[in-house]
Amino acid sequence: MKEKRILLIGTGGTIASEMGGSGLKPELTSEQLLRYIPDISNICETECIQLFSLDSTNIQPSHWVHIAATIQEHYREYDGFVVSHGTDTMAYTAAALSYLIQGIPKPIVLTGAQKPIGFETTDSKMNLRDAFTVATSDMPGVMLVFNGKIIMGTRARKTRSKSFEAFSSINYPLLGMVQDGRIIRYIRPESRAVPQFYGALDPKVALLKLVPGIDCGVAEYLLERNSALIIESFGVGGLPAYEAGNYYETVKRGLDTGKTVVMTTQVENEGSDLAVYHVGNSIKQNLPILEAYDMTTEAVTAKLMWILGQTKDPAWVAELFYTPIACDILAGN
Ligand code: ASP
User: Fold this and answer.
1) Do the beta carbons of residue 158 and residue 91 sit within 8 Å?
2) Which phi and psi angles does 327 have, rounded to 5°?
3) What pTM was computed for the model?
4) Do the first three CATH levels of 5-197 and 205-321 match, i.e. the same topology?
5) Is-contact 88 158, C-beta < 8 A?
6) Planar angle of CA 16, 18, 19, nearest 5 degrees
7) Catalytic residue among 11, 14, 93, 136
8) What is the pLDDT of residues 29-79, one digit of tens each?
9) What is the pLDDT of residues 178-212, one digit of tens each?
């Protein structure tokens, strides 16, 4: 059988970091990473591209577009793609690639590590090997592979800042596990024969996490300067209304000037349901806000950037927002 050809795209992160005088910094190229796992040649043929060497704190939407364009450029040459990436914003990149590259029948696997590949104790080698195992499989779409878990690109979140078990799948089952180099598959995501690539994002999406007593001037400021505002509210969702914070009026003004407002929750699991309480229901009934339901904030952010890169027409924005893409939102919410 012909060996599969996989492209490793290096972007930096802890996995590629070395210790310097001021802490860990990405220094290694994707080619240097591969030298740590020479046995990978037993499972596939590899080639490398180093796109950037960034701590993922410094990744911006323009980098997502660059990664997607690189995959598009090399789409025909390879059977799968591994993107090595810092863990801090990897969930955002995974979500963004899920919107920029839709329906792809080949695997795009993001991975990284909590400890650099050159350290004696490291999760880098296992994560990289597992990523290549998934990239050589017939599992389609954008996925994040970490500590044995295979997570849908739109459902990943970094839930631990230090330990190897860094990522969780939010409001959606794992796609599978990798154990001792073998994939145990639970779900096979759908794909199309031909992928659709996009190249435009509107990065002007802001996120506001509410705290009790927060002044609504913060929301006003963010709405003025952005195309969309995501409000992470409490519980199943609602907007505060007190002296310093009449959010209803602030949000209404933003919507009246053509801005998009999405309500979501700061609670990690089970999503929003604005209809339940008066504090949510009253705004849902009266204002054309959108609601995240079971989507992650990472996916909402990337989806809005993708949508607003194409249209600012509120009806279209709403239509696209509620259309499930890469299993990001349960249909019929
Ligand atoms: N700060 C690092 C990054 O996101 C953390 C990591 O990769 O684990 O690039």
Assistant:
1) yes
2) 60, 30
3) 0.97
4) yes
5) yes
6) 150
7) 14
8) 999 999 999 999 999 999 999 999 999 999 999 999 999 999 999 999 999
9) 999 999 999 988 999 999 999 999 999 999 999 99
Amino acid identity of 29? Answer: T
Ligand 1 atom closest to 113 (CA): 8
Q: What is the Cα–Cα distance from 242 to 232, expressed in whole angstroms? A: 18
Distance 15 CA to ligand 1 centre (A): 8
Q: How far apart are CA 333 and CA 88, in angstroms?
A: 30
136 among known catalytic residues: no
Query: C-alpha angle 276/211/279, rounded to 5°?
Result: 25
CATH class of the domain whose range is 205-321:
alpha beta
Report whether residue 123 contacts ligand 1, using a CB cutoff of 6 Å: no
Distance in angstroms (rounded) separating the CA atoms of residues 80 and 7:
7
Cα–ligand 1 centroid distance for 194 (angstroms): 33
Count the neighbouring beta carbons within 10 Å of the beta carbon of residue 24: 16
Domain assignments of the chain as residue spans, ordered by start: 5-197, 205-321
Fold exhibited by the domain 5-197: Rossmann fold (3.40.50)
The 3-state secondary structure of 182-216, one letter per residue: EEEECCCCCCCCCCEECCCCCCCEEEEECCCCCCC
